[in-house]
Amino acid sequence: MTQKILVALDDSANAMRAVEKIAATYSREKQITLYSALPEVDFKCMMDLNSLNREQLDLHYSLCRDMQTQKKQQVELALKKAKKRLLQSGFSEKNIAIKIVHGSNDIAGDIVNEADDGYDTIVMGRRGRSALKEFFLGSVSQKVLHAVKDKSVLIVG
Known about the structure:
The chain is α/β, with parallel strands linked by helices. Strand 1, helix 1 (13-25) and strand 2 (31-39) form a beta-alpha-beta unit. It is built from 5 helices and 5 strands; from the N terminus they run E-H-E-H-E-H-E-H-H-E. The longest helix is centred in the middle third of the chain and has 35 residues, at 54-88. The protein has a 5-stranded parallel β-sheet with strand order 3-2-1-4-5, with helices on both faces.
């Protein structure tokens, strides 16, 4: 039975280190899914909008859409780069899939739910947050690690 590996990616350097780890250590027969969950609205767009007039609101929403589009393009580029790296290291194209989920409200939850679809291992990078933010908010990798019970989780820093 072929092992399925879910690689949770964003456009960070740590995510690419996770891809490098797979390229360096995993068997080329593994089925790899490069997965990214994109939030619906970037946190920078969440603010008190009651004080804005119609023109300011239109500009605000336009900027938010532009940020969303730019983030989507960055993640798509990162996924393509990850796939190219795996192909260069000898993985077969038929063993590499790309999946993007749009409108995520819970990135860690989406990763765990996807992993429940027959994956044996989750590989992900550890984002570089400050120790204080991570203590209070938790990182996506920590949330996934604590939520997954029957799969291996490899967190690459």
